[in-house]
Amino acid sequence: MLRASQQDFENAMNQATLTMEDPGSKVKLKLYTLYKLCKPEIWHCLKKGPCTMHKPGVFDFDNKAKQDARKETAMDLKSSLSSSETSSQGKGGADKKAQESKDILVTSEDGITTITFNRPSKKNAISFQMYKDIMLALKNASTDNSVITVFTGVGDYYSSGNDLRNFINDAGEIQDKVTMCAVLLREFVNTFIDFPKPLVAVVNGPAVGIAVTLLGLFDAVYASDRATFHTPFIHLGQNPEACSSYTFPKMMGSAKAAEMLLFGKKLTAREAWAQGLVTEVFPESTFETEVWTRLKTYAKLSPNGMRVFKELIRNHERQKLYTVNAEECAVGQERLKSEEWKDALRNFLSRKAKL
Ligand code: COA
């Protein structure tokens, strides 16, 4: 997993120095920009950890615009450096490849395909485009050489769930995308139901909404002790999705599932583990090392065996999961027309309420 830091700039410089050929003006320009961006208030956007940066006030349009532009540039640079690093590594190894997408990074290495939410400036909120990119990434991963497929996030969040701005047009008005949303969501969730290989979530930080509900369709969920699990549908005029109305009560019992899905209780990583949503919790300080070491070991197990066992487990429930998904999407379609939802969206946009 690539985490951007001062070290990345130095690595990029070393790579460029070692290259026999001139890297070209585009690469040189990126290096120069990276150098210029190499200061704390930009690096915090790329690194893990809470934001300590001064935020311009709501009406400080000038500085907010400049800050947004700097964040975007930093994110773009990080994405392009990540993908160019992966592609260049891929030249030497047959099982390495990268999918070009700004907000979803896909890498394949050591028998593991990793799909990474890469939109840390928005807490990895999932835009419509990202839903499509993820479906494509899963489709590719189902037939590539990898043994295990892993989801994780860049930055301090795993993912803040559905991008609430998916429903807003450029003029800031709520858009009627009800049917399109229901169709996209149904197809998206079915892709997870049908995924044939072991699917693992490496939950590096807080997870919200669909980033949580989807976990019921994963085979293993490893969480940092910094992670939290929140499904605030009741505050949003929304309903549980990704088959969680079926998988959560089955996993944790109806009383505990109700606390999460009906009352919007936020769980710590350890609570989520106690309720069966999380496989294992690791201290933040050793999380990455321990989890990736373990996953590399698992990726050496028999790919065919794991496929067959997964199919055996999933086969009993596949039809049930399709039905639940269809029902949740139908209910969601109605909820998206409700005033409750529209009010919640307006609140979020005006930032009167934080969940
Ligand atoms: N949809 C759209 N934008 C989101 C988002 C989401 N789900 N989650 C975060 N963002 C954006 C914020 O609007 C903000 O954008 P800005 O910098 O342009 O103002 C940016 O990400 C950073 O988030 P911010 O709210 O400043 O960070 P925070 O640490 O104070 O709070 C959250 C983080 C996730 C608690 C808060 O953003 C939130 O409640 N998001 C909504 C989560 C949600 O309801 N998801 C859907 C569930 S169904």
Automatic annotation (TrEMBL):
What's the short name of a Pfam family annotated to this entry?
ACBP
Question: Is Repeat among this UniProt entry's keywords?
Answer: no
- Note whether Isomerase occurs among the keywords: yes
The protein depicted here goes by the name Enoyl-CoA delta isomerase 2
Gene3D superfamilies hit by this protein: 1.20.80.10, 2-enoyl-CoA Hydratase, Chain A, domain 1, Lyase 2-enoyl-coa Hydratase, Chain A, domain 2
InterPro entries found in the cross-reference section: Acyl-CoA-binding_protein (IPR000582), Acyl-CoA-binding_sf (IPR035984), ClpP/crotonase-like_dom_sf (IPR029045), ECH/Chromodomain_protein (IPR051053), Enoyl-CoA_hydra/iso (IPR001753), Enoyl-CoA_hydra_C (IPR014748), FERM/acyl-CoA-bd_prot_sf (IPR014352)
| Bias-annotated ranges (Low complexity) | 79-88
Recorded name of the encoding gene? Eci3
Query: Which organism does this record belong to?
Result: Rattus norvegicus
Question: Which Gene Ontology cellular component terms are annotated?
Answer: peroxisome
Cell location: Peroxisome
Superkingdom of origin: Eukaryota
- Region annotated Disordered sits at 72-101
* Domain named ACB: residues: 6-72
Q: Which PANTHER family match?
A: ENOYL-COA DELTA ISOMERASE 2 (PTHR43684:SF1), PTHR43684
Write the record's keywords in alphabetical order, separated by commas: Isomerase, Peroxisome
